[in-house]
Write a structure and sequence with these properties.
There is one protein chain. By secondary structure, the chain is an all-alpha fold. The protein is about 60% helix and about 0% strand. Helix 5 packs across helix 6. The relative contact order is 0.05.
């Protein structure tokens, strides 16, 4: 905690810019101080997301402890040294900034970090909820489409079944003759002096007489 109130106010009013050019340059110099050689420094700078352009590397070479101010000379290629490479942890600039703000001595900075953390958590929850909702809606749409196709197939099968099993247009009676044939027999019987009912069964003798008469007519016509 600050003991001087003016010093605390000045610290609270500092502009937070973790990616300023001054901080990047300071990080690059610190990296160079902890590097073994140019190759090691290049890998560290790249892992930390710092510039690795030729001008930057040339400016940082004198800061490497083993290099000092010695001029860089080109030598014959040597066999690479088998040194295990330990991957550096990937940094999250936003989380690092929030951690820094949460530990800041100024209450205003800490409060801001708390609000931002809560907002980020709320946004993350909303994003996940909307993604789950979209996925559920897509599943429902696919299920409805499948149901409509199945219903259409069922309607087609039922229509084909009705067509196949439809009753013949000419109905048969118990005598094996159609209603149209019985009506013709009744008409012939009345015309030839036979008495028949308008409905019901036609006597067998009249049916046989009708058949005999028509067979005789057919033979004469032939």
């Amino acid at each position: 905690m600050f003991t001087d109130w003016a010093e605390a106010l000045n610290a609270e009013s500092l502009h937070l810019d973790p990616t300023s050019a001054q901080q990047l340059a300071a990080a690059a110099r610190t990296t160079a101080h902890h590097s073994r050689d140019k190759h090691d420094m290049t890998q560290l700078l790249d892992a930390l997301g710092l510039p690795t352009d030729p001008d930057t590397l040339t400016a940082l070479l004198p800061l490497i402890p083993e290099t000092g101010d010695k001029p860089v000379t080109t030598t014959a290629a040597t066999a690479p040294i088998d040194v295990p490479v330990i991957p550096l942890p990937v940094s999250n600039p936003v989380q690092e900034l929030l951690d820094w703000a949460a530990a800041h001595p100024a209450a205003a900075v800490r409060n801001r970090a708390t609000r931002i953390t809560a907002d980020l958590a709320e946004l993350t929850e909303r994003r996940d909820t909307e993604a789950a909702q979209r996925e559920a809606e897509e599943k429902v749409a696919r299920a409805k489409a499948e149901l409509e196709r199945a219903q259409e197939q069922l309607r087609t099968v039922k229509a084909n079944t009705r067509t196949t099993t439809a009753a013949p247009t000419t109905s048969r009676t118990g005598s094996g003759r159609s209603r149209e044939e019985l009506a013709a027999i009744r008409s012939w019987a009345r015309e030839n002096g036979h008495q028949v009912a308008a409905q019901g069964m036609v006597p067998q003798r009249i049916q046989e007489a009708y058949d005999t008469a028509h067979q005789t007519s057919a033979r004469k016509a032939g």
